Amino acid sequence: MKKILVFLVLVVSVFSFSAPLVVKGSNTVLPIAQMWAEEMKKLNPSINITLEGAGSSTGISALFNNTTDIANSSRWLKASEIEQMGKEKKLFMPIVVAYDGIAVVVNKSIKLENITISTLKDIYTGKITTWNQIDPNLPKNRINVYSRNTASGTYETFSHFVLGSDKMSPAVRMVESTQFEADVVLRDSNAIAYMGIGYVDSNVKVLKVEGVMPSKATVLDSTYIMSRPLYMFINATEGFPMTGPVKEYFSFATSKRGQELVEKAGFIAAYGN
């Protein structure tokens, strides 16, 4: 009985903050963050966490503007952001919270199983516009190409792996929501899009990229080309937070239970594999 009481006291002390905690940023990380917040709320109903997923760049900008406590990001900091940190004498600390692979998805009716990076580049730069240009056995239908918008870390990462220094075609439809992409691919037999693997379900077809399917094993060993870590950034300008809501939040996120929720959300745990 004493052990149970001690455990309960520890739980209450670990999750004791009641001041609002603001978390903004990546749409990719958002479903994981929602699970963390819900679980922490069960442990302590007085917890007040505000979540917003408007893109990695939005979260990092909010960290500069002091309008968020934590910035979720599906990409590393840009050179311009690192330069801004230097000018403003700020230090943002990265914490890897999960791993992800950017999946290329099409409608299940498309008779295509594999795609190369060079073909993806030609599709997204507008050099390839119809399915039969990829394979003459595919229909001579226009490819409806979807992408996350430029505030998205997924867009930045995809551009890095696929486009290099080239620009996306103006014909590519830029959208704010990954879930919107998934819904469009389900409905549109000529759609192609890309998204974090946590958003993939049985309603869409995932293509192999260069012959490799995104999976836990291929992401962790980087044999899947478009693999990446997922981050939360915290403001450590005044030092590493040893107490308080920010510390409590990322401690839960990286705990055994927090990492189990990463896997439940369809992503890959960074710790405890």
Tell me about the biggest sheet? 11 strands, mixed
**What does the radius of gyration come to?**
20 Å
**Number of alpha- plus pi-helical segments:** 10
Report mean pLDDT, rounded to a whole number: 91
* Secondary structure tally: strands: 11
Can you tell me the overall shape? globular
Helix share bin = 25-40%
> Structural class, judged by helices and strands?
alpha/beta
- Give the percentage of residues in beta strands: 15-25%
The sequence of SSEs as H and E is: HEHEHEHEEHEHEHEEHEHHE
Alpha-carbon distance between the termini?
A: 33 Å
Unreliable spans:
1-17
Description:
The protein is of the alpha/beta class. The chain is 36% helix and 22% strand. The protein is built from 10 helices and 11 strands. The radius of gyration is 20 Å and the shape is globular.
Task: Summarize the helices and strands and which ones pair or pack.
Blueprint: H1 2-14, E1 21-25, H2 30-43, E2 49-53, H3 56-64, E3 70-73, H4 79-88, E4 92-106, E5 114-115, H5 117-125, E6 144-148, H6 153-163, E7 173-175, H7 178-187, E8 191-196, E9 205-209, H8 216-220, E10 227-235, H9 245-253, H10 256-264, E11 268-269
Parallel strand pairs: 1-2, 1-3, 5-9, 6-7, 6-8
Antiparallel strand pairs: 3-10, 4-8, 4-9, 4-10, 4-11
Quick summary:
It contains ten helices and eleven strands.
Q: Which characteristics define this entry?
A:
disordered N terminus; single chain; 273 residues; 36% helix; 10 helices; alpha/beta; eleven-stranded mixed sheet; globular
